[in-house]
Design brief:
This protein is α+β, with helices and mostly antiparallel strands. About 50% of the residues lie in helices and about 20% in strands. α2 packs across α5 and α3 packs antiparallel against α4. The protein binds zinc ion (2 copies).
């Protein structure tokens, strides 16, 4: 299965193609443009920002870090329509786990009653959340996902700045 060139999540079905790159949805497609900018940001600036977020306080609970990227997975069905998404959140480990437990309940309540994908995707998303709870990012070092997030965040600020100038 293909992986989204922006958020890195596995594309179960569909996706938008741009040359050799595949994105999971329009949002990721737009942000994918930013990756080109992101590559031009000096590594030491990224490093400094990553450290600041990682050692900083959690934006969700205002508690102590380390703060990292915690992805949570949802699925929601209504008879013939099943939609699913994976949301990356910047938060501490315990907020990440709470978010995933919340999404497991959400999937269990709303995910399965769609034909034909509901049941399968509910299982997939619940397992992904469980794996996320078991294999949380190493608290000692910032994850690759956090570096990615910071690069994209800095790139989007840069693009916005330039758009204001034009
Ligand atoms: Zn994506
Ligand atoms: Zn927290």
């Amino acid at each position: 299965m293909a992986k989204c060139a922006f958020c890195g999540s596995t594309i179960i079905a569909g996706g938008i193609k741009n040359g050799e790159l595949t994105f999971c949805n329009q949002d990721c497609f737009d942000k994918g443009v930013l990756t080109q900018w992101a590559d031009m940001i000096p590594a030491e600036l990224v490093e400094r920002q990553v450290r600041a977020i990682h050692q900083g306080i959690c934006p969700k609970c205002q508690g102590k870090g380390p703060v990292d990227v915690h992805v949570s997975h949802q699925v929601c069905s209504f008879i013939f329509k099943t939609s699913w998404k994976s949301t990356p959140g910047i938060c501490c480990r315990s907020c990440g786990i709470k978010g995933r437990i919340g999404d497991i309940v959400y999937c269990a309540l709303l995910g399965w009653w769609g034909i034909p994908w509901g049941l399968i995707l509910t299982l997939v998303q619940i397992i992904r959340n469980l794996l996320g709870i078991i294999f949380t990012p190493n608290p000692a070092i910032p994850s690759e996902a956090l570096y990615h997030y910071v690069r994209i965040d800095m790139a989007s600020r840069e693009v916005q700045k330039r758009q204001r100038l034009i």
